[in-house]
Amino acid sequence: MVSRVRVWLNRTYAENVFFMEQLRRNPSDRAVDIHATHGDPDSPVLAAADTAELEPEGLSPAGYVEYALDQCVRRGIDVFVPRLHQEAIVAHRAEFEAAGTALLAPTAEAVAVFHDKATAYQAVQSIGIPVPPWRRVTNEDELLSAVEELEAYGHKACFKPAAGAGGAGFRVITRAPFSMAHLNGFPGPYVPLDLVVRAVREAEEPVDWLVMPRLAEPEVSVDCLTGPDNLIRMAVARTKNGRRRGFTLDKRWVEPATRLAEGFGLHYLSNIQFRMFGEEAVLLDVNTRPAGGLHQLSLCGVNAPWAAVQLALGEDPGQVVPPFLGTDYAVVSGPRPLRSLSLPEQRAGEVEQAPVLPAVPVAPVEVGTAQALPL
Fold first, then answer.
1. Mean pLDDT, the chain, whole residue set
2. Which pTM was predicted?
3. Do the beta carbons of residue 175 and residue 150 sit within 8 Å?
4. Region 321-325: what's the mean pLDDT?
5. Which residues of 61-96 are buried (b: 16+ CB within 10 A; e: fewer)?
6. Is it the case that residue 362 has pLDDT exceeding 50?
7. Minimal CA–CA distance to 282: which of 129, 160, 116?
8. How many Cα atoms within 13 Å fall on the side-chain side of residue 122?
9. For labelling, which of 40, 87, 149, 227 has a CA lying 20 to 30 Å from the CA of 107?
């Protein structure tokens, strides 16, 4: 009898409830148990998991590695998909392997390169992949110089943290003074330059931002699956242009993403994003983790999470090629059930008797999990 696979996702995004569902609906008809941990008791991934636990707060990266190793041993984890403290965790890959757990994450070297966007841009330029013009800034004078340089060439300047994910901290700079135009309607990414300069001047610590031109759509995210042998198994691009989204296998996006994934050891699941700088496709970002929208590939008949777990278990799925490209679609949010307010205590050493979710969920609430609907 084929054994049950136990997968752990730590402090992951709400959208990964769909990642979990795809693991359970795998084409191999393999039994999968999912363990989830999070710092937020209202995370929907806790409700979607078979077992769940709140993570301790305030752990250093080294302390978190010890916590993670203990979880893997106590819970009998076969495959660990780390998001929080990924860099520290992959540096201890051998210890996890000794505990019987495979890490579904890239090499330590790859995670280190792409953790910092400036380092990443320099690295990919070295293999001939275009990047947008950018300047790293830490203070008011550097910020003003970078903005003025971009504006002199007719570009609209924007900035984002040198280290970060998910678009957090991205802003577009405007010369328009703060007015009711910034207060009417929904909040937007535009911030007046004078307010940004004042905030940087008064900050207790230097900022660490990349300033660059605002890049044009389409935004293209290439979901890659790469084996530990550095060979790509899957590269499918998802396009975004306003509300409309779709899929493509266009070499303009897939070829540079494949070169990056294979060349830098982006093992297992990664997401490589491009946008347009004039008429040229340039790299926007590299995520060394599964994208929140990875589940949307199911519209192309692809179950990427399961193929990645197979690779982590040493069961090569071969080339994962979409049997078809799905129709264009839009993403909407939908309700997901949550756990009761408190998680039951789970005693160490009782893997087989670990508490599971109640059979009857509490009333669903609206959360930002993305569902794909055809246009």
1. 91
2. 0.89
3. no
4. 97
5. eeebbebbbebbbbbbbbbbbbbbbbebbbbbeeeb
6. no
7. 129
8. 10
9. 40
